[in-house]
Inverse folding.
């Protein structure tokens, strides 16, 4: 067995076994015998952030075509092999990684893992399948243009991330997707789909040593491409740090409700302020008891929907509050959103408010780790982000240590230059 490193790390009642194969592929294995199921998540450290401006959307298109053919199997044969054992197989592409995932009963895991290896190592990208998925992506982009929320979100990203891949949706743009070809997929695959750029995360009814041995069996002979030698691909381009400038963009459209978004540039997952901002996000916009919901919807009747989000990103992220409102209330709703964000800078949260947000965040975090698939996802995700498997325990400990002063100071650091995106009938009055 070609394993260069291996260790086990115990997190609460679970032991996460981490191994590095001879080709530098990372394998995580967690034994969970509660059900006769094994879930596997295979992360490729690529995604939208690795796309050039001319090839925006290539990672999504590649992921959509990845299961449509290999050097040995057609799309139909792949589907038949998966369905014949009752397994599930899927792919995804995000801003920071691509993903191949599957779930199967323990007995069939070796067979499905072998198929997963073939999909990753020798996809054929059939021309007909590439063209079909390219057309579907274009349809999806055109559909997004008819959704005020999607239009407002894209407009906000383009203001906040000029010249950065995060500016575009993972689908890409109509102009770039229209020009994507099989050759683009082959080049992207050749650059980023290599063993030292992959994390395999397995959870279920299998001994960790057996899981690692199976990965080594089907992936261990996958050698680095000769033209790359020992140099990892540039998976996360060194983009100059974005400086908050503040900007407003307004698109008048005939809509039943107006979408109002206010965004602020915020740090990546590796910042010391990351978890404080996660708590503030939970406090402001997570659920029916959140500050925005209670104040702007229940008390003032300004919102049909209202929330906040702060995505976990390897590069600079965005902290966004938004609502959908009646066109006549657009100006008032925008003022209400900005007042709530400003309040976080000017007033410390009470101990009760902060503790309630922490409890909610930690409770939801615990609920997100119940199934084998969820566990495989979270451990693999942390490894892919460069946080390490220990972050699962650190997350909970650090959340508990956040004080009202820490939360306020984080707000004061990042909530100074707002970006405003407004789309809908009420937008015309804001010009």
């Amino acid at each position: 067995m070609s394993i260069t490193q291996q260790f086990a790390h115990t997190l609460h009642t679970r032991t996460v076994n981490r191994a590095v194969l001879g080709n530098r592929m990372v394998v995580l294995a967690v034994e969970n015998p509660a059900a006769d199921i094994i879930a596997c998540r295979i992360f490729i450290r690529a995604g939208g952030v690795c796309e050039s401006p001319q090839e925006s959307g290539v990672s999504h298109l590649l992921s959509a075509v990845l299961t449509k053919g290999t050097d040995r199997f057609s799309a139909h044969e792949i589907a038949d092999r998966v369905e014949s054992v009752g397994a599930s197989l899927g792919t995804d592409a995000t801003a920071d990684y691509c993903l191949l995932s599957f779930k199967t009963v323990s007995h069939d895991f070796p067979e499905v893992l072998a198929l997963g290896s073939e999909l990753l190592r020798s996809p054929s990208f059939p021309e007909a399948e590439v063209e079909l998925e390219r057309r579907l992506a274009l349809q999806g982009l055109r559909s997004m243009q008819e959704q005020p929320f999607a239009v407002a979100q894209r407009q906000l990203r383009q203001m906040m991330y000029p010249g950065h891949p995060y500016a575009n949706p993972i689908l890409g743009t109509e102009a770039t997707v229209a020009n994507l070809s099989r050759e683009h997929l082959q080049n992207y695959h050749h650059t980023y789909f290599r063993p030292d750029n992959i994390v395999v995360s397995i959870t279920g009814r299998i001994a960790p040593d057996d899981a690692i041995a199976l990965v080594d069996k089907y992936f261990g002979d996958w050698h680095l491409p000769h033209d790359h030698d020992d140099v990892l691909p540039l998976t996360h381009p060194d983009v100059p740090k974005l400086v908050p400038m503040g900007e407003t963009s307004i698109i008048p459209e005939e809509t039943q409700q107006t979408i109002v978004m206010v965004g602020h540039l915020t740090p990546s997952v590796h910042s010391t302020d990351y978890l404080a901002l996660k708590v503030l996000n939970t406090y402001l916009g997570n659920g029916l008891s959140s500050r925005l919901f209670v104040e702007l919807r229940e008390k003032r009747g300004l919102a049909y929907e209202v929330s906040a989000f702060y995505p976990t990103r390897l590069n600079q992220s965005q902290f966004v509050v938004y609502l959908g409102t009646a066109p006549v209330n657009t100006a008032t709703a925008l003022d209400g959103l900005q007042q709530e964000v400003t309040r976080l800078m000017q007033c410390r949260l009470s101990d009760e408010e902060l503790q309630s947000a922490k409890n909610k965040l930690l409770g939801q975090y615990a609920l997100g780790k119940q199934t084998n698939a969820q566990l495989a996802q979270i451990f693999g995700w942390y490894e892919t982000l460069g946080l390490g498997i220990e972050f699962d325990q650190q997350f909970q400990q650090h959340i508990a240590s956040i004080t009202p002063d820490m939360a306020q100071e984080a707000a004061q650091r990042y909530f100074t230059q707002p970006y405003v995106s407004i789309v809908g009938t009420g937008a015309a009055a804001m010009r």
About this structure: The chain is about 40% helix and 20% strand. The mean pLDDT is 92.
